[in-house]
Every structure is written in C-alpha cells, then in structure tokens.
Amino acid sequence: MVRVGVVGATGYTGVELLRLLLAHPEAEPAVVTSRGNAGERLDALFPNLRGQCDLVFQEPDPAALGECDVVFFATPHGVAHAMAAELLKRGTRVIDLSADFRIKDAQVWEHWYNQPHGAPELLGEAVYGLPELNRAQIPEARLVAVPGCYPTAVTLGFLPLLEQQLVDPLRLVADAKSGVSGAGRKAQVGSLLCEASENFKAYGVAGHRHLPEILQTLSLAARSVPQLTFVPHLVPMIRGILATLYATLAHVEVDLQSVYEQRYRDEPCVDVLPAGSQPETRSVRGTNLCRLAVHRPGGADTAVVVSVIDNLVKGASGQAIQNMNLMFGLPETRGLEAIAVLP
Ligand SMILES: NC(=O)C1=CN([C@@H]2O[C@H](COP(=O)(O)OP(=O)(O)OC[C@H]3O[C@@H](n4cnc5c(N)ncnc54)[C@H](OP(=O)(O)O)[C@@H]3O)[C@@H](O)[C@H]2O)C=CC1
Ligand SMILES: CC(=O)N[C@@H](CCC(=O)OP(=O)(O)O)C(=O)O
C-alpha cells in the first residue's frame, strides 16, 4: 500500500484526488490537510465520500506528512515551494499539482507568478509529469510537477505535429475553453453563478501564465522555440476543457490521422478519435482521458486539432495519480479506469 498525504484537501483538485485515491486498490489516504477546516471530518464537508474513510482534516504539519510515502500538494502557488524540501529530506516523495516546479527558469516563473521563487534549488530535479512525454524519468523522480490543465490539453494536441516537424512552429494558435471548476473552490466573484452562467468570455488574452509552460514543453518537442497565440475562455459548465488548435502544415501530403494514431497507439490515457469525429467534454467527464481529433478542413494547409480533457482529472488529480502509479511501480492506469458519466 502507498501511504498518501494530501495538502489542500478541501479544494476541488484535493477532493478529486481523494475521490480517486479512496477507490484505488493500492493507495491509502492517511493525512488530509486544511487550515480552515482542521478538526472536521472529510465526509462531513464532502458527503460524496461518506462511508469511504474516517479521515479528519489536520493542519499541514511536515512531521505527520513526512510519515507518508508520497504527498500531493493541491494548493495555491508557493505552498509546495515552502514545504517540499523538508518532506524530501524525510524521504517522502512529492507530487505537486500547482505550478511551483513546472517552469525550469526561476526568473520566468517569477515574472508570470508575480512572487519570488521559493525553492529554485529543487528545479533541477523536478520532473514535468506528462507521462506521454516523460515516462522514462517519472519512476525515479522524488519531485513531480504535474502539468497545468490547459497545458495538458494543448500540449497533447500539438505534440505529434511538432515532434515530426510537420507544421510551421511560428504560427500556432490555441483557442481553449475551460469550465468554472478550473478557477478552484475559493470564493471569488468571477465564479459566482450570476457571473459565470449564461455567459461566455475570453480572459488573459494579453498573456496567461500557462503560455510559458506550454512553450517550454513544445520547444523540447519541436527542437526550436515556437510562437503560440493562446487564448483561454471561461464557459458556463463545471468540468471540462476543450482546446481547438490551429497550425499551418509544412507538408501538405501528410496523413494526419495516421500520424496521430501512431503517436498515441500505446498511450492508455490518450484516445485518438476516428477521422471526422468531434470530441466533446462530456465524453471525458470524470475520466483520465484526453480525447483528440485531427482535421484538415477543405484539404487545405491548416491542421485543426480538437482536444478535450476533464480539467480536474487528466488536467490535475488523475494525471497526478498516473504519475504516482509510475513512481511506485504500479500499473499506470490503476484507479483511473472510470468511464465517463452520460448524459
Ligand atoms: N482547479 C483546476 O482545474 C486545476 C487546478 N490546478 C492547481 O492545483 C492547485 C489547487 O487548485 P484547486 O484545487 O482548484 O484550489 P482550491 O482553491 O479549490 O483549493 C486550495 C486548497 O489549498 C489549501 N490552502 C490554501 N492556502 C494554503 C496554504 N498557504 N497552505 C496550505 N494549504 C493551503 C486550501 O485549504 P485551507 O485554506 O483550508 O488550508 C484548499 O484546500 C492550484 O495550484 C491550481 O492552480 C491544476 C490543474 C487544474
Ligand atoms: C477557469 C480558470 O480560471 N482556470 C485557471 C487555470 C486552471 C488552473 O488552476 O491552473 P493550473 O493548472 O496552472 O494550476 C486559470 O485560468 O488560471
């Protein structure tokens, strides 16, 4: 059994981690933290977990967390910076769902996150936890940075085109839409029903913090620095991201369908749909899948890829558990086999 701690267990990604971990046959959630709800039972706050455990929230305490084999950070940026080194020293591995260790250049991180980097000495060993790209490094990692939700959907969509240098890397466009749970459970005006429902808007058009993260990964895939226009949008649904990606083909004779099918043939968490399909967010709701379809409208030189994920599963907690499985020698999809709920 892998003994697990979750820091930030009252947030949306934290409680999603617990929903998945409590059904995982080889994981034992042992420590769950919340500063605001310390002393309360987990299932009193989240009745969907009633009957699954007797866990009680406690203050984040490195001594208690250090008794775990692995600790997930489902916390705002900066929290893992402050606690990761101590846990690693105690022999506890760390899987961070925040952006603290995703960007390799501390100065770039500080620019986009507008705060000092709290643990630059750990950046060298942090592994970017996108199994479809870094599966070889994850099993030995002590510290995994789980990719962001938009970066997961966008990167998996562009990867085959850039790895095989099939498109102009200087003219990439990602038009992405997220459900409101992407903004977290904390109280904020933009997430109120009267603000977010019956509405559809772009945000972060001038620059979003996921842009440098996406570019860092795509640069490695393309072996050059691409240029990407990335525009996120907020849609009035709870879960899900749909990213529509555009790229100009360098080789028009290429069979894009077979490029995608070949690239993801052995990937258990990426499903390339048949030619002509339209991925929809409800087809991945609650699952750890990224579903993709590739099109070339009118047979012209623009490739259009549509990529969908559940932001809380493949975009966060499910992908974090996929990493845990690899780190502890478990089957990669253990505990992640759920089928989407429809309708
Ligand atoms: N929502 C999403 O779709 C995704 C989120 N992420 C990332 O995952 C992380 C968590 O997101 P999300 O679950 O949405 O966030 P929430 O705002 O829903 O939850 C944050 C959690 O962190 C705890 N927390 C806040 N501040 C501290 C602190 N200083 N020390 C310890 N615990 C703290 C909170 O509990 P308390 O204050 O009681 O301690 C709460 O449990 C973020 O970094 C987010 O960017 C990544 C991918 C997708
Ligand atoms: C809808 C919404 O607000 N989404 C969030 C992104 C989700 C998230 O939490 O970002 P990380 O994956 O980097 O942690 C945003 O745009 O900031």
TrEMBL record:
Q: Which HAMAP family match?
A: ArgC_type1
Can you supply one Gene Ontology CC term for this chain's record?
cytoplasm
List the subcellular locations. Cytoplasm
Q: What does this protein do?
A: Catalyzes the NADPH-dependent reduction of N-acetyl-5-glutamyl phosphate to yield N-acetyl-L-glutamate 5-semialdehyde.
Where does this chain mainly localize? cytoplasm
Family membership noted in the UniProt record: Belongs to the NAGSA dehydrogenase family. Type 1 subfamily.
| Active site: residue positions | C149
Q: Which NCBIfam families match?
A: argC
Q: In which pathway does it act?
A: Amino-acid biosynthesis; L-arginine biosynthesis; N(2)-acetyl-L-ornithine from L-glutamate: step 3/4
Q: Which reaction does it catalyse?
A: N-acetyl-L-glutamate 5-semialdehyde + phosphate + NADP(+) = N-acetyl-L-glutamyl 5-phosphate + NADPH + H(+)
| Protein name, per record | N-acetyl-gamma-glutamyl-phosphate reductase
Task: Write out the entry's keywords from A to Z.
Answer: Amino-acid biosynthesis, Arginine biosynthesis, Cytoplasm, NADP, Oxidoreductase
In the record, biological process GO terms are: L-arginine biosynthetic process
| CDD domains in the record | AGPR_1_C, AGPR_1_N
Instruction: Provide the taxonomic classification.
Output: Bacteria, Pseudomonadati, Pseudomonadota, Gammaproteobacteria, Chromatiales
Q: What is its EC number?
A: 1.2.1.38
- Limits of the Semialdehyde dehydrogenase NAD-binding domain: 3-141
Q: Which InterPro entries match?
A: AGPR (IPR050085), AGPR_AS (IPR023013), AGPR_dimerisation_dom (IPR058924), AGPR_type-1 (IPR000706), NAD(P)-bd_dom_sf (IPR036291), Semialdehyde_DH_NAD-bd (IPR000534)
Instruction: Provide the transmembrane region boundaries.
Output: none
Q: Which species expresses this protein natively?
A: Ectothiorhodospira haloalkaliphila
Which GO MF term does the entry hold, naming one? NAD binding
Top class in the EC scheme: oxidoreductase
